[in-house]
């Protein structure tokens, strides 16, 4: 035995030959070191065919050209445009162009534009031109915001007179840290520079 060669392979790298298949119909490979004779092997080194669709399904198959192993993968359907089924209904269907799987969906309406029902009310309605379904919503026509006291604002609907209100503070934030019952408390204090409104929000609690 050549101990010099063994020494080189132990403390450096082996000098392997190329990987070679051992059997004709298996995907098992083998190689050995040309210096010390150490062997290595690996399995499942397949040589795959191209992906091909299986019949009229949305599934593809590939086959190993050596051992016959197979892998499958499911693909997205090839959907056409949605189509309405009936003249006076809002149901749509579509069929995959490859496997014929069906999808359907309902309430795909074709709405008219929103219109107010009466002059002094803020209720709007619309109608589907296919199935005559109707929809309603409240839609005010507000004036600009008017500032009151203590950051209070209000506005009126110019159609029905409804009054909308809100508070519009200009907040300044300050973070504080203090010890309480052996814990470090982190807080953010927000106060309005105009009216004195204040809110305290915990940020985190940690060990002291």
Order of helices and strands: HEEEEEEEEEEEEEEEEEE
Treating each run of at least 4 consecutive H or I residues as one helix, how many helices? 1
Uncertain runs: none
- What is the CA–CA distance across the termini? 68 Å
Q: What would your notes on this structure say?
A:
With 208 residues, the chain is mainly beta. It folds into four domains: 3-42, no CATH class; 81-108, no CATH class; 114-166, no CATH class; 171-207, no CATH class. Helices cover 4% and strands 41% of the residues. The protein is built from one helix and 18 strands. The strands form six sheets. It has a three-stranded antiparallel β-sheet, with no helix packed on it. The radius of gyration is 38 Å and the shape is flat. It starts with a helix and ends with a strand.
Supply the key terms.
mainly beta; 3-stranded antiparallel β-sheet; 1 helix; 4% helix
In short:
This protein has 208 residues and is mainly β.
Strand-helix topology:
Layout: H1 3-11, E1 20-21, E2 29-32, E3 39-42, E4 52-53, E5 59-63, E6 70-74, E7 83-84, E8 92-95, E9 102-105, E10 115-116, E11 123-127, E12 134-138, E13 146-147, E14 152-156, E15 163-167, E16 171-180, E17 183-192, E18 198-207
Antiparallel strand pairs: 1-2, 2-3, 4-5, 5-6, 7-8, 8-9, 10-11, 11-12, 13-14, 14-15, 16-17, 17-18
């Amino acid at each position: 035995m050549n101990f010099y060669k063994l020494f080189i392979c132990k403390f450096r790298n082996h000098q392997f030959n190329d990987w070679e298949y051992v059997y004709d119909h298996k995907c098992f490979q083998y190689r050995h070191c040309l210096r010390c004779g150490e062997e290595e092997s690996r399995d499942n080194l397949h040589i795959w065919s191209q992906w091909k669709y299986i019949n009229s399904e949305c599934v593809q198959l590939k086959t190993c050209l050596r051992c016959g192993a197979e892998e499958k993968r499911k693909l997205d359907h090839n959907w056409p445009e949605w189509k309405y089924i009936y003249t006076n209904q809002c149901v749509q269907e579509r069929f995959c162009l490859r496997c014929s799987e069906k999808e359907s969906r309902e309430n795909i309406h074709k709405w008219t534009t929103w219109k107010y029902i009466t002059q002094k009310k803020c209720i709007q309605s619309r109608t589907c031109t296919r199935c005559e379904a109707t929809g309603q919503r409240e839609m005010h026509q507000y004036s600009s915001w008017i500032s009151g006291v203590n950051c209070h604002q209000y506005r009126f609907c110019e159609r029905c007179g409804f009054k909308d209100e809100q508070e519009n503070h200009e907040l300044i934030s300050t973070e504080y840290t203090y010890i309480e019952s052996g814990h470090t408390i982190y807080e953010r204090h927000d106060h309005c520079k105009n009216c004195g409104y204040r809110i305290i929000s915990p940020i985190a609690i940690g060990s002291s």
